[in-house]
Amino acid sequence: MQLIQSTYLIDLLSTITLRNRAAPRGSDSRSPRELTELLLTDLGDVSSSKVSRALLAQYRDMTEDQKHAFFDMLASDFDINGPALADLARAYADDPQPDRLAALTEAAEPRRQEIFRRLNRVPGATAELVAMRCDLLRMAKVAPRLAVIDQDFLHLFRSWFNQGFLVLRHINWDSPASILEKIIAYEAVHAIQSWDDLRRRLLPEDRRCYAYFHPAMPDEPLIFVEVALTDGVAGNIQTVLAEGRPALPANRVNTAVFYSISNCQKGLRGISFGNSLIKQVVEDLKSAMPELTTFVTLSPIPGFRRWAEQRLAALPEAETAPLAEALQDGGAALRPYVAHYLVCERHPRGGPLDPVARFHLGNGALIYEVHAGADTSDNGLRQSCGAMVNYLYDLDQIDANIEGHSTKGTIAHARALTPLLKTTSAPAKT
């Protein structure tokens, strides 16, 4: 996979989108159930395309209740045939012949999956199916029985959106306005307040932004990362994003700081893009700028304040003062608690308690440094009392870190954090 800089290829992808949007819409008086059943028959390509367009058009026009009824139908009437599957499984166990395995495999797949595959043959349908899953995820919160359909979406999307299909594009100030508007809208870590704010993140020579796209959705970023090229490891997001900040010339740059990673498509939740995005961007930056020697994040700690307040409530009154003061002050005294939370606190299902830590440590990074007063925005104070953390991607240690984390649950961290972990101020678990 290569970084796309060719105007020709970008224009080609946009042409595909325009063609998809211009494709004629199907209209059909038959019910969604009739169209769904018909879609599974042996239609020719033209007829199948017309039925698919008609069904997608009907779905777009459905009310919330009608969509719910449509999903109910898919969950109950287009599921696997349990008794038949059990019979086939016993037959295969008795005589494991290839034809019996083929029959068993076919029976084990809900008919819903083939419906989604056939719908996806229509130009532009991929984005519509991603939007359809958004509806499903919302409805499944109050109707858990619909979660079986989500397993079908996940199975298909993990194939359709695998790394081999993804296109990495460098987003800059000259990118199409429609893409830039979406970068503003989708930024989920440090809100982009204005076009001037966006320009400060894209235009200077020491700033980069990269996004993954899919050929079937060329105008919709899937995920993007913002990068600051710095002299040394940055430990304060306000400094990184400061208005009027002088840009560093290339001969003073030695560090790439990944300070914001935003997933863009709610309908692709559970499809992992961040791991490959970071690795691909590191490779491209290293190739273009050999002087870069350090690759780190400047990451939020979204679960810290909630954890600390829970611990505060559980501590004996005589022991609450140090933690309470650290939370209130947000200064250096906060760092031992942050280090303890990141390194020592574990999720019930394994791995670090903090979700961002789980992501980066699972990708082979190590906890490099923690910073108090690093994010004084309302969101930063609400989530972590202003603290932030650097995760270091040491290219020579990534594989070893992944293996240690996955097999032993090791939380890799820099030696400089050890003194913080040895302090007595970290609250004991209850």
Instruction: Write out the strand line-up for the largest beta sheet, numbering strands in chain order.
Output: 1-2-3-4-5-6
What is the strand tally? 8
| Beta-strand content bin | 5-15%
Mean pLDDT across all amino acids: 92
The top-level CATH class of one domain is: Mainly Alpha
Quote the CATH topology of one domain.
Butyryl-CoA Dehydrogenase, subunit A, domain 3
Gross morphology: globular
CATH architecture identity of one domain: Up-down Bundle
Tally of helical runs: 20
Measured distance between first and last alpha carbons: 48 Å
Largest sheet: 6 strands, mixed
Low-confidence sequence ranges: 1-12, 15-26
Helical amount = 40-55%
- Overall SS class: alpha/beta
CATH superfamily of one domain, by name, is: Malonyl-CoA decarboxylase, oligemerization domain
InterPro entries: Malonyl_CoA_deC, Malonyl_CoA_deC_C, Malonyl_CoA_deC_C_sf, MCD_N, MCD_N_sf
GO molecular function: malonyl-CoA decarboxylase activity
Protein name: Malonyl-CoA decarboxylase (MCD)
Organism: Tritonibacter horizontis
